[in-house]
Amino acid sequence: MGERVVIALGGNAMTASDGSATPDDQRRAVEGAMRHAAALIAAGHQVVLTHGNGPQVGNLILKNQLAADVVPPVPLDWCGAQTQATIGTLVLNALEGRAAVVVTRTLVDPADPAFDNPVKPIGRYFTEAEARRFEGLGQTWRRFERGWRRVVASPEPLQILDAPAVAALMAAGFVVVAAGGGGVPVIRDAEGKLTGVEAVIDKDLAATLLARTVRAATLVIATDVPQAVVGFGTAHARPIGPITASELRELHAAGHFAEGSMGPKVEAALRFVEHGGDQAVITSLENIAAAVTGQAGTVVRK
To answer: Rounded CA gap, 179 and 130, in Å?
Structure first.
């Protein structure tokens, strides 16, 4: 049997090339992504798939906002769980094999400083008057250049609570879809009870934690570019191929990767390798099969 691989699919795997997220667009995008993943599965690798859910959660939030005077808005953790199931169903239909979806919870610390300073924007832009109305429902909104937008905390993922179920399904020969959107964020209260919270967990950091927990050999972070780049957008841009974790850590510390895009992916790759993973690869969707053999993408090893 091949090695155990976790593939973290970016938003480009869930929507059309122009960002459209109609049901048909999402279905076609997922079917295309699964054709690439199927090559790894056919080669005998044990595959776990995780994915982003930004557009899908954004759509649910908009429905909540538009209907807030008619039906009570559902909490953000519910939106995450719903999109895990919806996207997971599309993946199951595309693979048509021995596959399973685990609606996955990710434990976070209620004392995480991120809760005191919510900065992760979600959903669409609204006017100030509309934002003030939603603030009356207990939400936090901030003004951006294009208007007002809701912001939530993005706490550090501590534990993938449903990883044992993922591991059991993998041992039984299933391809598993898990921890979509970073997982449903939950905290444990003083009595030990688990409760969902209004937060968004970075999907790539959660993918790293999932990969470490299920003892994957390789973490593939699929994005919309073939490699990470030093000097992106400049005349001195240089794509990064094979690189050691220490070398990439130095580049990251020097500010070469934007926090809103490549930065979290680089950090996720580094954490995986620095905590015992064999290799992490950042590459485009069409290269994920070649990435496992180190023949494509930014390949990070010790």
So the answer is: 32
